Amino acid sequence: MINTISLISGLEEVPREWIFEFYLELGEKLCGQDVRIKSIFNLVDKRPSFYVYYSKAHGRYKFKDFSVGRGGDGITLVQQLFKLSTRGEAAHKVIMDYNQFSLTNAEDYSLREFKVQQKYKVSEFIKRSWTNVDQKFWTQFHIGSKLLEHYQVFPLESYKMTKEVNGDLQELEITGRYCIYGYFRADGTLYKIYQPLVKDNKFIKVRDYIQGTDQLTYKTPYLVILSSLKDVIGFTRLGYKQAEAVAPDSENTLIPKHVIGAYRLKYKNICTLFDNDQAGIDGMAKYKEAHGISGCLLLLSKDLTDSMKEHGVQKVKETLTPILNQVLK
């Protein structure tokens, strides 16, 4: 019997899972599960920070590289991996490579069983009282309990996560006597869990929220966008009277255009103040490109609160003030 292979001419004929399997040289077939590997863009990545995940919203696989702040679909991956100028060039390469691959491989992707994984979601939590351990952790950044409570940050005794597997509900309970914190909205809604002493899953996102929104007064002329709620709280601790602050889920997340437009109606000027590592610098560049918002770079420690910890409040304010004045003038 002679087998014939029809070469393709359009990107729509390429299985999108194949793009990730082929170019990332994954050791497993993508059938709905998430995969985590070391960064292909950051060769000194010590812990796997590159995620390949199935996006229900888009109905296809995407990637997120937290070590360098990159993400997107398979075409974006190929464009960035091979440093191509346009998505069209990346799409052409994918088509050519897939045709070459098909000459020696005959897998039928239409026969692959595809099951989207259910993920654990936070279902319950129990608050607890502040302890000396909490005080020791937060006061190293010159942040006290009153400021934490103003931003609705409270210590947690435990939380539960659940997911449904084959009709059965699986439950996972995480109990930590120390250093687990819930981030809440003013109405008591939990939107994030912060576990600063955990290497993996330091943050658990519960729902979308631009951090610090409930605390905005809209009575200052300037708004500063930071990379985390901890930095927002630290910025407030510095005592600036002419500026207030918010933070997206991460410095890799762009605040939507319509929200930025609403901010511009309330504030005279806006700037970003992210970490001074590559991810932070790339994040500020994204805000500049997408929204025309300039960035501040504080070259003391990695981020604002680490700078406060290692150099003190006064030193940070003396260093940061002229930088803010230059960008926000």
Q: What best-fitting shape do the alpha-carbon axes yield?
A: globular
Sequence of secondary-structure elements: HEEEEHHEHHEEEEEEHEHEHEHH
Mean pLDDT: 89
Low-confidence stretches: none
Structural class computed from helices and strand pairing: alpha+beta
The proportion of residues in beta strands is: 15-25%
Main sheet specs: 6 strands, antiparallel
Distance between the termini: 76 Å
CATH architecture of the largest domain: 3-Layer(aba) Sandwich
The portion of residues assigned to helices is 25-40%
What is the CA-atom radius of gyration, in angstroms?
23 Å
CATH topology of the largest domain: Dna Topoisomerase Vi A Subunit, Chain: A, domain 2
Q: Return the domain count.
A: 3
- H/I helix tally: 10
CATH class category of the largest domain: Alpha Beta
Number of E-state strands: 14
Describe it for me?
There is one protein chain. This protein has 329 residues and is α+β, with helices and mostly antiparallel strands. The chain has helices at residues 16-23, 74-81, 87-104, 132-139, 145-150, 229-237, 257-266, 278-291, 304-311, 313-328; strands at 35-37, 50-55, 60-65, 70-72, 121-127, 153-165, 168-175, 181-184, 190-194, 203-205, 222-226, 243-246, 269-273, 294-296. The protein folds into three domains: 11-111, Alpha-Beta Complex (DNA Primase, Chain A), CATH 3.90.580.10; 118-208, no CATH class; 210-329, Dna Topoisomerase Vi A Subunit, Chain: A, domain 2, CATH 3.40.1360. The protein has ten helices and 14 strands. Strands 5, 6, 7, 8, 9 and 10 form a six-stranded antiparallel β-sheet that branches. The protein has a four-stranded antiparallel β-sheet with strand order 1-2-3-4, with helices on one face. A hairpin with a 2-residue loop joins strand 6 and strand 7 (168-175). Helix 1 runs parallel beside helix 2. The radius of gyration is 23 Å and the shape is globular. It starts with 15 loop residues before the first helix and ends with a helix. The mean pLDDT is 89.
